[in-house]
Amino acid sequence: MLLGMRPSTLALAFTTFIAIPHAAADGETSPLLGGSVIGTASTNSPASAAGIQIEAAVWAHWFGIAAEVSANTWSGEVDDASKTVVVGGSVRFRVLQYTISSLLEPSDVELGVELQGILEKTVWTTDSMPTHEPYHRGLGLAIRLRGSTDDESLIAESRLFIRVLSWKQDDAPFAARTTQPPSADDQDYMVLVGIGAAFGGGERSYLRKFRRRAFE
After folding, report:
1. How far, in Å, CA of 86 to CA of 93, rounded?
2. Which domains does the chain have, with CATH numbers?
3. Could you tell me which of 164, 166, 165, 147 has the C-alpha nearest to residue 156?
4. What 3-state DSSP class applies to 57?
């Protein structure tokens, strides 16, 4: 499972993919650059967070890979809110895609569903951070609506996604202080929900299918 993939495995996949020239999905001529508002809750503590995430995603047909950075403000465990910066990446698999009529505009949009495998790590925090911060691994589901802008040369995409991330205490300094094997209680989880938008260059032949329809 992707939850159990080693960090080096996903890092190799990321490095290999970005080395492929002109990798693009349906009609894309550039990476998609996006931003999201995110909320995070831990299942094993009262801590929760709100923040923003930026990403750059590259697609090759049904397969994509993205680099991600997020900044979060945590609250619920201490009086003073702590802030963190998290970097990571995700592999993405498009499993469904349909063209449907837009409810808000006189045009068609593309509805897509993605499955994601995520690997991330906290690289900075206002609190004292252990030397070996654990990697967070997880799975995600994203629903996207894609259309075009007025100049018909730019892809516009809105996204709603949910992720479940986990890590083991044996990834942390706890492992250096004991020889006991980790138990089920050592597994921590958090749920992340986000909504955002992304933009990127697109081929006119691809974007033509999103052209506005005349009112009847």
Report:
1. 23
2. 2-210 (2.40.160)
3. 147
4. strand
Q: Which residue has the tokens 């490095």?
A: 15
Note the pLDDT tens digit of each residue in 155-195: 999 999 999 999 986 654 433 333 445 455 578 899 999 99
d(CA 139, CA 116): 6
Per-run averaged pLDDT (10 residues), the chain, 216 residues: 45 41 64 97 85 96 95 76 92 93 81 97 79 87 90 88 88 42 69 97 85 53
Rounded to an integer, what distance in angstroms lies between the CA atom of residue 61 and that of residue 64? 8
Query: Are β-strands 154-168 and 187-201 bridged in parallel, bridged antiparallel, or unpaired?
Result: antiparallel
Prediction pTM value:
0.78
The residue type of 93 is: F
What tokens appear for 98 in the block?
A: 């349909």
For every residue of 163-192, DSSP letters joined together read: EEEEEEGGGSTHHHH--SPP-GGGEEEEEE
Phi-psi region of 27 (alpha: psi -120 to 50; beta: other; left: phi over 0): left
Tell me if 48 sits within 8 A of 39, measured CB to CB.
yes
